[in-house]
Design goal:
Low-confidence stretches: 618-633
Strand order of the largest sheet: 14-16-17-15
Shape: flat
Structural class: alpha+beta
Number of helices: 32
Radius of gyration: 42 Å
Mean pLDDT: 83
Helix content: 40-55%
Number of domains: 4
Strand content: 5-15%
Distance between the termini: 81 Å
Length: 633
C-alpha cells in the first residue's frame, strides 16, 4: 500500500489517533473520512485495532512498529494495554484532552512541519497520574471542555482553537517539578531501569491505585469525598501515597495500623479500613489490581480475626491466623475477663491493650488456641465437642437436645454454656463403633447416619439410639472418615425399625388399584359420600395423608359391584351385559355420569343372575389392606 502524497512526521511518543488526525488535516479531510476511504474506521484506530493501525501506518509512510509503540490497545471492557501495562479508564484520560502548553509551543516552532499539523498528542498525557510535563516542568492544561464524543480523539480538531490562543494556553500552565510519584510512573511506562522500589512488585495499575488511595486517606482522613477531589488533590494524594510505600511493606502496614478505629465497631476490618476496602472491592471487578488485592488481603488476615470459610476479596479463608479476645471467648466459652487475664499472664497481650475493647485486642491464633485449650482443661464447649466427635452442626444440636450428648457440666438454668469431657465423648464414640466392621467405601444401602436419616425419613437421634441399644445387626466403620461420620448402617434395616404402626386404611391410589379403576372415580365416590376418609400418618414416610378406612371400602364392596368387574370376570362385552341387566329391570345404583363408572347393587345382580355369585365373591379377594402394604402412595 503506497503512502499518501502529503504525509506528516510521527512525533516522539505520539498516539495513533493523533497521527491519523494530523494526517487527515494535512490532506484536507476529516479523520473519520480518511479512515473510511481506506477501508477502516477511526473507532478502530482509537481502540488499537492492529489492522486499522497497519493501514494508517502505510498511508502515513511510517512503520507499523513505530506507530504501535504508543498505542492504547483495547483489551476488555474499560480496559487497555499500553506498552505491556494493563490500565482502565479510571487510570486514563479517555474523555478529556490534556496537553503541556510548552510542548505545543515547541511543536509550533518546528519549521519542518506546517504549523496547523505540527502539534501532536503524547501518549504520556493520557495517563491520569501524570499531571506535570517532565521536559518543561509545567502543569498539563485541559483544552476544550465538553467535547462531543465524535470529536474527542480528533486531536488536531481539538487543539486548533488552543493553537490560535497559544499565549493564553501557556499562561494556564504552572511552573513546577514533577512529584516523585509522577516521575516513578513516567519512568515505569517508558521502560526505564527499576528504582528498586517496593511498588515494583505491583503491576502498574495496582501501584497507581495504591498510592492515590492511601494518599487520599492520609491527606483527607476517613471521611473524604473522592468524587469531589480536584486534579491538584489527586496529585498531592499520589505524592503522599508514594512516600508511604517508599518505606516498603512496613511503611504501608504502619499506615494502615495507624488508621483510627471507630469506637463503636466490633473489630470488623470493614469498619476500620472503610473506603480503602470498598474501592479495592469495586476496582477488582474491572481492573487488574490483583497485586494490591493480595497485599490488602494478607494484611486483613494477619490483623483481623477472620473465621475460616469467610470470603475476603474473592478468596475463601482456609484457616484462622488471628484471634481477638472476643472471638476466642466465643469459641472456647471462657469469660472474656478471665481470658484477658490468662492471655496477659502468658505475654500474649501487651500492656498497651488494656484500654482496648475485646474485639480490638488481637493476637496470633496459634498462641490463643494454646491458652484456650489450657484454660479449658478437660472440658469442651458444645461446638468443640462436635468437632471432637466429627458431628455436623445440625446433628450436634440434635444429639444434644435428644440427651445423647451428655455434658459434664450443664449450663441449663444458669444461662451458661454446657461443657463436655473428652473421656465422655470417647465413651460415646466407643459405644457407637463397637463391633463395627471396617470398610473402605459406602454402598447404595450402606450409608452414614445423616444420609440414612434423610432416606429413611427419620431423625438421626432415632438411629443413634438403635445403635446404642444394639438393635441393628448391620454396622460398619468407614476407614476414610472418623468419629460420628464414620458410622455406616443398613438403610433397609433402619427403615424396618423406624416404620410407624399400620393403620386399617388404604390410600386413594391403593383403592384405585384394588378396584382396577381410576383415581377420579374413587375421588367422586368420596365426594358423593359413598366412601369415608380420615387423615392418618403414613407409616413409611411419616407424612399426613388422606386415606379411606378398610371397613368403609368393604361396606361399599358388600353393597355395590362395578360393571367393569362383572364384565371382566364373565368375559362378556359390557354392552351385552348391560342389555341383559336392563332386560331384567336392573339399572346402576351409582350412575356413571355421577362418578365416572357404573355401580350396581350387589343384591339385585345376585337375585337376577344367581350363577354370578361365585364370580362376585371373587371380586372381594384380599388386596393390600393397609398403607404400609402400599409401596407407591
Amino acid at each position: 500500500m503506497r503512502p499518501l502524497r502529503i504525509t506528516v512526521p510521527l512525533g516522539i511518543g505520539e498516539t495513533p489517533p493523533s497521527f491519523a488526525s494530523r494526517l487527515a488535516l494535512a490532506n484536507g479531510l476529516s479523520v473519520r473520512d480518511l479512515c473510511l476511504d481506506f477501508g477502516t474506521t477511526f473507532k478502530l484506530v482509537i481502540s488499537g485495532d492492529t489492522a486499522a493501525l497497519a493501514v494508517i501506518a502505510a498511508k502515513g509512510g511510517v512503520t507499523t512498529r513505530d506507530l504501535n509503540e504508543h498505542a492504547f490497545f483495547h483489551t476488555a471492557r474499560k480496559q487497555y494495554s499500553y506498552r505491556g501495562h494493563i490500565l482502565t479508564r479510571t487510570d486514563l484520560r479517555r474523555t478529556s484532552i490534556y496537553v503541556c502548553p510548552e510542548c505545543i509551543a515547541s511543536d509550533l516552532r518546528d519549521r519542518t512541519t506546517a504549523a496547523r499539523v505540527a502539534p501532536f498528542g503524547r501518549a504520556i498525557w493520557q495517563i491520569a497520574a501524570i499531571k506535570t510535563c517532565s521536559i518543561h516542568e509545567t502543569s498539563l492544561v485541559q483544552v476544550q471542555h465538553a467535547l462531543a464524543s465524535s470529536k474527542l480523539h480528533d486531536f488536531s480538531f481539538t487543539i486548533g482553537p488552543a493553537v490560535l490562543g497559544i499565549d493564553a494556553l501557556r499562561r494556564g500552565g504552572v511552573i513546577r517539578s514533577q512529584t516523585s510519584f509522577e516521575r516513578y510512573v513516567e519512568n515505569r511506562v517508558q521502560g526505564q531501569a527499576s528504582q528498586n522500589h517496593y511498588l515494583d512488585k505491583f503491576n502498574l495499575q495496582s501501584a497507581l491505585l495504591a498510592c492515590e488511595l492511601f494518599g487520599t486517606y492520609a491527606m483527607l482522613g476517613m471521611k473524604n469525598n473522592m468524587r469531589q477531589m480536584s486534579d491538584e488533590h489527586w496529585r498531592e494524594a499520589g505524592r503522599i501515597g508514594f512516600e508511604i510505600f517508599a518505606d516498603g511493606e512496613r511503611g504501608a502496614i504502619e499506615f494502615l495500623e495507624g488508621l483510627p478505629r471507630p469506637l463503636s465497631s466490633n473489630g470488623s476490618f470493614r469498619a476500620h479500613l472503610g473506603g480503602i476496602f470498598h474501592v479495592i472491592s469495586e476496582r477488582r471487578t474491572v481492573g487488574a489490581v490483583r497485586d494490591l488485592e493480595d497485599f490488602i488481603r494478607d494484611y486483613i488476615l494477619s490483623h483481623y480475626p477472620i473465621d475460616p470459610g469467610k470470603v475476603v476479596l474473592g478468596t475463601r479463608v482456609e484457616r484462622r491466623l488471628v484471634h481477638s479476645v472476643l472471638t476466642l471467648s466465643r469459641e472456647t466459652g471462657l469469660h472474656p475477663i478471665r481470658l484477658r487475664k490468662l492471655l496477659k499472664a502468658a505475654g500474649v497481650l501487651p500492656p498497651s491493650t488494656d484500654g482496648l475493647k475485646n474485639a480490638h485486642c488481637v493476637f496470633p491464633a496459634e498462641l490463643g488456641d494454646k491458652i484456650g485449650d489450657s484454660a479449658l482443661g478437660a472440658s469442651l464447649s458444645l461446638r468443640r465437642a462436635a468437632e471432637y466427635i466429627n458431628a455436623p452442626p445440625a446433628h450436634r444440636d440434635l444429639l444434644y437436645k435428644a440427651g445423647l450428648l451428655i455434658p459434664g457440666l450443664s449450663g441449663k438454668g444458669v444461662r451458661a454454656q454446657s461443657t463436655f469431657y473428652p473421656s465422655d465423648l470417647d465413651d460415646f464414640l466407643q459405644r457407637l463403633l463397637s463391633e463395627a466392621v471396617a470398610v473402605s467405601t459406602t454402598g447404595p444401602k450402606r450409608l452414614n447416619i445423616p444420609d440414612t436419616a434423610k432416606r429413611a425419613c427419620c431423625s438421626a437421634a432415632e438411629i443413634v439410639r438403635l445403635i446404642l441399644d444394639n438393635s441393628l445387626s448391620g454396622k460398619w466403620r468407614l476407614s476414610s472418615e472418623r468419629g460420628y461420620l464414620s458410622v455406616l448402617v443398613d438403610l433397609d434395616e433402619v427403615r424396618e425399625h423406624v416404620k410407624g404402626p399400620d393403620n386399617d386404611t388404604l390410600s386413594i391410589e391403593a383403592t384405585r388399584r384394588r378396584w382396577k379403576t381410576t383415581a377420579n372415580v374413587v375421588r367422586a365416590l368420596i365426594r358423593h359420600n359413598y366412601l369415608a376418609t380420615v387423615d392418618v400418618i403414613n407409616p413409611l414416610n411419616r407424612c399426613p395423608v388422606k386415606a379411606i378406612p378398610i371397613d368403609s371400602i368393604e361396606r361399599f364392596e358388600q353393597t355395590y359391584v362395578s360393571l367393569y368387574a362383572m364384565t371382566r370376570l364373565r368375559k362378556v362385552h359390557y354392552k351385552t351385559f348391560i342389555q341383559s341387566l336392563e332386560a331384567g329391570g336392573i339399572f346402576p345404583a351409582v350412575a356413571k355420569h355421577l362418578v365416572g363408572a357404573a355401580f350396581y347393587l350387589r343384591s339385585e345382580v345376585l337375585s337376577f343372575l344367581p350363577e354370578t355369585r361365585q364370580i362376585l365373591c371373587s371380586t372381594q379377594r384380599d388386596k393390600p389392606r393397609t398403607l404400609s402394604g402400599i409401596s407407591n402412595l
